[in-house]
């Protein structure tokens, strides 16, 4: 308006159009200022930056319109420089939106995002540490749940894609940080070796200083599972602490100081720009975008992606960009209005309205689940295609659709996908086979689908995958068996299909997670001596003793299975000859409450009516930890410890009588 005062005084009346343009520009500037002022530490950074970017883009267009109108005024009154105009053209180029659009397209295709793309997005929205990424995931998860409650499929689908982006960022960081030592020894928050591990009520273990800071921020959810926590009780995990200490000593590793880590809040690896190690959600008032957002188009963009994106954009003449189109619908502030309270500390106020995604534009137009059904039925037809490429694409798409949203799993099962996927378990193409078994695993997580899957004849095909698939397929087949093994009828069918032998092999050569799942499946299946003997003959006891290496992170699961097998004579001999007894004594002394309980139970079975085993256990120094267990263990652990001590006392008295 000061700029307009001079023309008015000089009897040069500005046009109504110019007045309107200045008013529009002023409105956008005010909106931007309000957005910056409304920033809250527990807002979604991604949605916040997209909103800011959308407003900045509007401000740019409005500014350029004003400049064009000012050119018609006399040059001696006002003359915007070309440098100024060029600078304004660079403001709000929607580069973050464009990058996220391309990432969501790749995500929908099942294409793995490169570290460069993940770093670019993380940097652009101010996700500077693993803690920032986990907080973003929690915030987005709750926003997605809000969208599901009001059946806003477009918004839920878009946020689902963003959640998966944060998961990929976290996995990328974890892969870098945990490459040199067992992953179970790392805190999921700090991604560093734990020195004071504590367990929360969800059963997950964290570094004490980091989980306490998490709770101090008002986040009453488990960072890893994202499940709500009823209380903030922290239970010291002495088992993990002892294993970490032993591993560090054996490998000459000095664990980091958690207090130093928590103050440094290490930045995202490969992060370019000017962020410092001190930047965090507490100290940074809002995401800072560096100069890379002000210039240049995205480099080396695949031409086919650009063409696909162009086709999506041109579906509506008014759509300047997928994300910006959806975000522009949001006319309310991201944060709560003055005086408004947030009912739960981790949930962002419902005034945030950013919705939509490239993968859900059709749903917006045709109506939610009906659009999903059309898509799923098309994918089922592709599964029956003679083209392996079409089958690979279809299984990859179904895997993405079954990943997160329970309602989607119900729709997919209702469309008849289960039978088609079971058929693909016999595919000679390892990629198709692996994707199909992962889809069935995801679908089995919904209780309403379990019966349909069980009656589809799935168990022989799952065992076939256990025998012939790649490692990912074998491990996901095992998880599917675990998911379906709650029903006794299903367990019988698994045994008839011959599941025990390949499960034992997986327990010997799988990844730590695969070994754990195989052990769990065998615990569920080997309930009678006949099945237990099959496990033992297959080398199961030897594999379980190997799993009791503290560095493997599989000790507790191995002890459960050993306790289950210990009543079989062949298992007793295998445990003794394989060096399992001293390891069981170590768990009694240093293990978790559940581990101590099962280790004591296994020793109790071994020593029952056997003076030879009693003597071996006594020589391994079991008496002091057993005495301690009678005072501080679980009810069952106390009972087993007292029984063992009675056996030892009876043996002592028998030896005295003989002497």
From TrEMBL:
Kindly tell me the pathway this chain contributes to. Answer: Protein modification; protein ubiquitination
Positions annotated as ARM repeat = 416-458, 498-540
Reaction(s) catalysed by this chain's protein: S-ubiquitinyl-[E2 ubiquitin-conjugating enzyme]-L-cysteine + [acceptor protein]-L-lysine = [E2 ubiquitin-conjugating enzyme]-L-cysteine + N(6)-ubiquitinyl-[acceptor protein]-L-lysine
Q: Which Pfam families match?
A: ARM_PUB, PUB2_N, U-box
Enzyme Commission identifier(s) = 2.3.2.27
**Coiled-coil segments on the chain, per record:** none
Recorded GO molecular functions are:
ubiquitin protein ligase activity
Q: Does the keyword Glycosyltransferase apply?
A: no
Name the InterPro entries on file. Answer: ARM-like, ARM-type_fold, ARM_PUB, Armadillo, PUB2-4-like_N, RING-Ubox_PUB, Ubox_domain, Znf_RING/FYVE/PHD
Arranged from A to Z, the UniProt key words for this protein are: Repeat, Transferase, Ubl conjugation pathway
Q: Would I find Repeat among this entry's keywords? A: yes
A Gene Ontology biological process in which this protein takes part is: protein ubiquitination
Q: What are the record's GO terms for cellular component?
A: cytoplasm; nucleus
Residues forming the U-box domain are 180-254
PROSITE patterns per the record? ARM_REPEAT (PS50176), U_BOX (PS51698)
What function does this protein fulfil? Functions as an E3 ubiquitin ligase.
Protein name as catalogued: RING-type E3 ubiquitin transferase
Give the originating organism. Answer: Brassica campestris
